Amino acid sequence: MRSYDGSTWTASDINDHTLQVNSLSCASSTFCLAFGVGGNIDWSFDGTKWADRSFPEFEYVDGVTCVSRTFCAMIGRKRYSPERPAPLVATSDGHRWRVTILPGKFTPSDRRLRVGQ
Amino acid sequence: MAALVRPYGEQTMVRYQAGTWYPPADSVQVSRPRLRVMPDRHVLPGCERRRVRDVRRQHVANVAAATILATPGFLRVANVLRRQFGLLVGALLRRQHVVRSNPDAGWQQVSRTCRASRPPFCAINDDHGLTFTYNGVNWSAGGQVGSSHDEFSRPISCAAPNHCLLTVGELGDVATYDGGAWSAPEEILHARGWLRSIDCATQTYCVAIDNWENVLSYNGAGWSGLTPLPPSDADHVAYGSTQVSCASPTLCLAVSNRSGGVYTYNGSDWSRQNLNGSQAMASLRSTSCASTSFCMLAVVTL
What we know:
The complex is a heterodimer. By secondary structure, chain A is mainly beta. Helices cover 3% and strands 50% of the residues of chain A. In chain A, β7 and β8 (71-77) form a beta hairpin. Chain B is α+β, with helices and mostly antiparallel strands. Chain B has three domains: 1-32 and 235-302, no CATH class; 37-103, no CATH class; 108-228, 6 Propeller (Neuraminidase), CATH 2.120.10. Chain B is built from four helices and 21 strands. In chain B, the strands form five sheets. In chain B, strands 1, 2, 3, 20 and 21 form a five-stranded antiparallel β-sheet that branches. Chain B has a four-stranded antiparallel β-sheet with strand order 4-5-6-7, with no helix packed on it. In chain B, β20 (281-291) and β21 (294-301) form a beta hairpin. β11 (113-114) of chain A pairs antiparallel with β5 (121-126) of chain B.
């Protein structure tokens, strides 16, 4: 969990789960999501503090974008393994993530997808 | 491998709100940011090529370590154990994350690839030129744009379900999505090398940054500019991403991990920002502007 006292961010668990923010998206000043390279934890910002949530479906997140509190999309992979690259996308309604395997000509290779820039 | 997991710096969130930068204060220990292989390696001078080779060797080592350590369920089990046994397992978990981290992390950046239309709309692309769109219910393949032998997914941004821009290739070409199909890539004004980042605040205002950190802007009809970002006085120069996020034609935020600079655009000029209270920056990770008075920046400080 993380807290914000008006000038200082305090993080207690992030460093144990996700070492570097890889993707960040803010829909408003009171809603952001951030993912680390680990990808199984997302951090949400409510305007005053960050809180982490377990997100077990992905083991690597390539990118996230949020347009509102009730819609975010993320791209990642199920497993960092050549045997099971499984590029996935997920959309969130604010409560749960819906994971989808993208259609197309995916082959068993380490393809990465980009959300945005 | 010990050198790879030695704690290096702190990761903080820096907030820009109502014209003021709020100081970073996180205390998240991170590991030394590692160099990344650049797609423009063919233009790198000799010493940089050697660094790229070093990165590749490191990547091979990391993949080998990941193969050994990334057994199914390890991460989940380690999380549970960490909660039970604390720092000892936590340290092991940290090591696991480091060796499994993708060396290209930072290339995948965030922008307005989705739009808050009703229903929401998204467009994405992969590193083989395939595009996909989301209509609020399903994802569907949108065809191939650019080379199928591309090594990297390319910057993309959508201002509306019928207006997306996708950068293509190494020469700064851009393809446009009109809601039904992607156009053939067209060269935009004098971009030097591939476009590192693009973001559309509206259908008539987009910003792109090229490989040499020149800024180009789009007004709905064409591109103009090629304005260099202000020079950085930081002694930190590294490989990495450049990213721009625009909330409106009067507020954009750009971060460059190459120069270690943070830049804002006020509608007429780009200026380099001095983040109040920040320490020397080791890595600028990601940024997102939600409105004209709110941006967020993830930064790793020394």
